[in-house]
Design brief:
single chain, six-stranded parallel β-sheet, 18 strands, 19% strand, binds nicotinamide-adenine-dinucleotide, seven-stranded parallel β-sheet, 464 residues
C-alpha cells in the first residue's frame, strides 16, 4: 500500500507536537486526502486519540460540530442546490438544522448495568473503530452532519466517500466538520475523505481491510454491494412510501400534510410520500382540499400523460434530469406554465401507472382511488415493494391504523402527519438521515455504530 509522504509528514508533525506537550495540534490537514489509504491511516491515528480523550472532550467536539454546521448552513445549502440541481434551498436549510440539533450525541451510548443475586453485569457500547460511509447525492450536507455526529459520539473515526456529483458540497461540509473537531481539541483526521471521491474510491473504501464497518446510504444496488463485502454493514436503501387515506380521516388536514410531505425538498427525501392511495368515498374531497392549499396543481389526464412521457423513460426508468427539480421546471418542459406558489403536481393514476411503482423523487404525485381500506392496505403493501422503509396513514380508526402498520412492516410509520414527522421534523424522536430498513437498525444513531461489550463482576456490587 502506497502512502503519501506529505500526509505522513503531517501526521508525524502532529504526533511530535503531542509528545512535546504542544498546544492543540496546528496542522494543515483539512480532512481531505489524496488517496483512500491516506484517509484511512489518518482515521486510524485519530480514532486511537479520540478514545484516549475524556467523554467531556468528546461532548465538546460534538457541540462544536453542531455549531459549526449551523454557521455555514445557508452557504452550503445554496451550494448543494447549485451543484446537484436537486431540492430546495429552504428545505436544505431545515434539513441541516434538523441534523445539527436532533442527531443524538454521546448520551446515546450510556452504559447499562444490571445487578442480581450473582453480582453485577455492565454493558458498554464500544466503538467499532474506523467506519467507511457512502453518502447519497440527495443529502450531501444532512447525511454528513448526521453520520459524523453519530459515529464520533460512539468513539469512531469515519472515512466518507460522497456521491461524485455532490463532491464540492460534501468536501466543503467535511472541511467544516473537520475544523470544528480540531478547534474543540479533537484529533485531525477523525473525519476524512479523498479529495476527489469517485466510484473507484468508493470501491477502495469498501475493500480496505482496516475499515471495520460500512454504512451505505443510497439505492438498493449500493446496499447490496456493502452487504456482500464480508464486513459488518449497515444499509439504508431506497423507499417508495405510500400514504393511505381512509374514509375516517380528517380530510382537510390529510390534504395539507400530504401536500407538505410530498413536496418537501422537491420530493428527494427517501421518506417523502411517493404515491397517495385514497378510499373512493373521500377521494374527491382529498383532491379538492389539496388544491385549496394553493400549493398543489391538479394535472388534467392529458397533461398527466405529457408529464409522464417526460419523466419516465420508454424503458420505465425515471428520467434523472427531472429528479429533485422544481415543479415549475418539470411542468414547463411538458408545456404547462404554473405560478411560483405551487410546490406539487398531482394527478389521478391507474394502479399500474409507472409513477406509482417507481421512486420518482420529484414533486409529481400520483393519486390512486381504492374501493375501501382493505383494498387500500393490500395495494399499499405491494407499492412499498418490501423496502421496509416508510408508510403514512391518515385515519381516525384505530383498527385500520393497526391493520395497515402490521401489514406493511415499514421502519417508519407515520399516522396523521406529514412523512417528515417520522424523521423528527415536527414529530417526536431523534432524526436520522441513514434509515437502515434493509439491515434493520432503523433510524440510526450513535449506538448503531458500536459493538456491545459485557463486563461481569461475580458475587459483588449488589448493594441492596
Ligand atoms: P446511489 O445509490 O446512486 O449512491 C449512494 C452512494 O453510493 C454514493 O456515494 C455513490 O457514489 C455510491 N455508489 C453507488 N453505486 C456505486 C457502485 N456501484 N460502486 C461504488 N459506490 C457506489 O444513491 P443516490 O442517487 O446518491 O441517492 C438517492 C437514493 O438514496 C434514493 O434511492 C433514496 O431513497 C436513497 N436514500 C436512502 C436514505 C435512507 O436513509 N434509507 C437516505 C437518503 C437517500
Amino acid at each position: 500500500m502506497e502512502t503519501n509522504p506529505e500526509v505522513v509528514a503531517a501526521l508525524v508533525k502532529m504526533v511530535l507536537q503531542e509528545l512535546t506537550g504542544g498546544e492543540a495540534p496546528k496542522t494543515e490537514c483539512d480532512g481531505l486526502f489524496p488517496t483512500v489509504n491516506d484517509a484511512v491511516e489518518a482515521g486510524l491515528v485519530a480514532q486511537k486519540k479520540l478514545i484516549g480523550m475524556s467523554l467531556e472532550r468528546r461532548k465538546d467536539i460534538i457541540a462544536s460540530i453542531r455549531n459549526a454546521v449551523l454557521e455555514v448552513n445557508e452557504e452550503l445549502s445554496a451550494l448543494a442546490v447549485e451543484e446537484t440541481h436537486l431540492g430546495r434551498f429552504e428545505d436544505k436549510v431545515r434539513e441541516n438544522i434538523l441534523c445539527a440539533t436532533k442527531t443524538p450525541g454521546v448520551e446515546d451510548i450510556e452504559a447499562r448495568a444490571l445487578t442480581g443475586d450473582h453480582g453485577l453485569m455492565l454493558l458498554e457500547y464500544a466503538p467499532v473503530g474506523l467506519i467507511g460511509a457512502l453518502t447519497p447525492i440527495t443529502n450531501p450536507t444532512g447525511t454528513l452532519i448526521n453520520n459524523s455526529i453519530g459515529m464520533i459520539s460512539a468513539g469512531n473515526a469515519v472515512v466518507f466517500n460522497a456521491h461524485p456529483s455532490a463532491r464540492n458540497t460534501s468536501s466543503r461540509m467535511l472541511q467544516v466538520i473537520h475544523r470544528a473537531i480540531v478547534n474543540a481539541g479533537g484529533p485531525p483526521g477523525l473525519v476524512s475523505s479523498v479529495r476527489n471521491p469517485t466510484l473507484e474510491t468508493a470501491k477502495e473504501v469498501i475493500e480496505n481491510p482496516k475499515i471495520n464497518m460500512l454504512v451505505a446510504t443510497g439505492g438498493r444496488p449500493i446496499v447490496n454491494i456493502v452487504l456482500r463485502s464480508g464486513k459488518k454493514a449497515i444499509g439504508a436503501g431506497a423507499g417508495n412510501p405510500p400514504v393511505l387515506v381512509d374514509e375516517t380521516a380528517q380530510i382537510r388536514k390529510a390534504a395539507k400534510c400530504i401536500a407538505s410531505g410530498a413536496s418537501i425538498n422537491n420530493g428527494i427525501f427517501c421518506t417523502c410520500e411517493k404515491v397517495a392511495i385514497v378510499v373512493q368515498e373521500v377521494a374527491d374531497s382529498l383532491i379538492k382540499f389539496m388544491q385549496e392549499t394553493g400549493r398543489v396543481y391538479l394535472l388534467t389526464p392529458e397533461e398527466a400523460e405529457r408529464v409522464t412521457k417526460l419523466v419516465v423513460t420508454p424503458d420505465r426508468h425515471i428520467n434523472g434530469k427531472y429528479i429533485g427539480r422544481d415543479v415549475q421546471v418539470i411542468l414547463r418542459d411538458a408545456g404547462i406554465e404554473i405560478g411560483d406558489e405551487y410546490r406539487l403536481a398531482i394527478f389521478e393514476a391507474s394502479a399500474d401507472h409507472p409513477l406509482v411503482w417507481l421512486e420518482q423523487m420529484m414533486p409529481v404525485l400520483p393519486v390512486v382511488r381504492v374501493k375501501d381500506v382493505n383494498e387500500g392496505i393490500e395495494f399499499a403493501v405491494k407499492v412499498e415493494q418490501g423496502n421496509r422503509h416508510t408508510a403514512i396513514m391518515h385515519s381516525t380508526h384505530i383498527e385500520h391504523m393497526t391493520a395497515f402498520a402490521r401489514a406493511i412492516q415499514t421502519t417508519i410509520f407515520v399516522k396523521n402527519g406529514p412523512s417528515y414527522a417520522g424523521i423528527g421534523l415536527g414529530g417526536e424522536g431523534h432524526t436520522a438521515f441513514t434509515i437502515a430498513g434493509p439491515t434493520g437498525e432503523g433510524l440510526t444513531s450513535a449506538r448503531t455504530f458500536t459493538r456491545q461489550r459485557r463486563c461481569t463482576l461475580c458475587e459483588s456490587f449488589r448493594i441492596i
